[in-house]
Amino acid sequence: MFEIISVGAMGTLVGAGISYVLLKRENAKHINLFVLEGKAKANAIEFEAQKKLQDAQIKIKANELELEKKFQEKINELEKKARILEEKRQNIEAQSQKIQGIKRRAIEKEESLGRLIEQKEQKIHEIIEKMQHIASMTKEEAKAYILHRVEEQSKAEVAAIVRRYERLAKEEGERKANYIIAQATTRYAGDFAGERLINVVNLPSDEHKGRIIGKEGRNIKSLETLLGVDIIIDETPGVIIVSSFNLYRRAIASRVIELLIEDGRIHPARIEEIYESVTKEFEKKIYEEGENILINLGLFPMEKELVQLLGKLKYRASYGQNSLAHTLEVAKLAAVMAAEMGGDEKLALRAGLLHDIGKALTQEEGGSHVEIGAKLCKKYNEHPVVINAIYAHHGHEEPNSIESAAVCAADTISAARPGARREVLENFTKRVKELEVIALSKAGVISAYAINAGREIRVIVNSYEINDNEAVVLSKSIAKEIEDKVQYPGEIKVNVIREVRAESMAR
Fold it and tell me: Domains plus CATH for the chain?
C-alpha cells in the first residue's frame, strides 16, 4: 500500500516537473513573441519618426525657397525703385545744370547791361556838352531832351525783349506740357467699353420665356414693377432683354432673373424674396469693389461711405463713359503728371480717385456732383488739395496746387479722347431721369421708373394715402408737368399703380 502511494506521488512529481518545463517553454515563446512585437513597434515608430523628419525637412526647404523667392522679389522691387530714383536724380541734376546755365547767362547779361548803362551815361554826357555848344541849350534842357529820346528808344527795345522772352516762355511751356501729357498717356493704357442701355440674359431654353411672363403676365408685371426696368421678350431664341437707363437697376434686374431661372420657382412672392437677397448681395459687392480698388492703388483705408460710393461708380455712366473707368483713368494719369512736375504722386492719385465721387449720388439726390462730392470730402476731412481738385475740374475754383492742376488736365484728357463719350446718350438719360424726378416730387409716390426707352413712366403710390380717384388725378398732374417741363418726341404714358396688400400671421 505504501509502495503504491509512493509510486503515485512519484508520478505526480514527474507530471508536475514536465508541466513546469512545458510552461517555461511556453512562457519563453510568449516572451520572445512580445520582444519581437516590441522590436516591430520600435521599428515602426522609428520609421514614422524618420518620415516626419523628412516631411519637416521638405517643408523647411520649401519655406526656405519661398522666402528666398520673396526676398529676391523684394530685392528686384527695391532695385526697380532705386533705378527710378536714379532716373529722377539724373533729371533733377539735368534741370539743375540747366538752371545754373540760365543763371550764369543772366549774370553775364546783367554785367553786360551794366557796362552798356555806363557807356550810355558817358555818351549822354558827351552829347549834352555838344548840344550846349551847338544848339545853345542849357545843360538841363539838353539832358531832358536826350533822356526823353533814350527813354523812347529803351521802351521799344524793352518791349521787343519782353515779347521775345514771352514767346520763348510760351513755347517752352507748351513743349513741357506736351511732354508731360505724352508721358502720362503713353505710360497709362486703360480699357474702354461704351455703356449700353440694355443687358441680355441668356435662357436655357425658350420655354423659360413663358415662365418669366407667367399666367396672364403676372410674373413679368411683378418683375417690371419691383425692379424698375423694361423686360423685352421677343422672338430672338434663348434670350430676354433687360432695358433701363440706370446701370444699377439693370444689373440687379439681370441678376434676379438669372437666379429665378436657376431656382425654377418663378412667382411674385419668390421674385420679391430674391430681389431683397440680390440687393443685399450687391451692396456688399459694391463695398468690396471699392475696397479692392483702394488696396490696389495703395490708398486704403478710407471712410466706409466713400469706399461704398467709389464701388457704386461702376454702375454710373456719364455721356456713355463708365464713371469708375473714367475715375481710375483720371487718377492714374494725374499721378503720372504730378510725378513729372515734382508734385505729390499719392495725393494726386487720391484727388483723381475722388474728383467725381459725387456722381454716385446724383441719381438719388439730384444736383451738381461737384457740390455733392466736395460736401462729402469735407465731411470726412479729406485733404484740401482733394477738395480743390473736385471744385477745379469743372471750373468752380482755380487749381491751387500741382496735384489739382494734374487732375484737371487728366479729366480733360480722359473725357476728350475720341470715342470716350456720347452726347446723345447723355441727353437721353438726363431726359428720362427728369421724368422720374417729376413723379417722385408728388406726395404719396413711393417709387417711379421710366421704362420703354422713356415712352412710359411707371409710378407706384402708397395705397393708404392715395385712393383710386386720387390716382387718376395724380396721373393727369404728372402728365401735365411733363408736358410743361420736358422736351420729348412722341407721347409718354403715365401709369400710376396702386396696390393694396393685407397680411396676417397664423400662430
Answer: 195-286 (3.30.1370.10), 313-421 (1.10.3210.10), 426-498 (3.30.300.20)
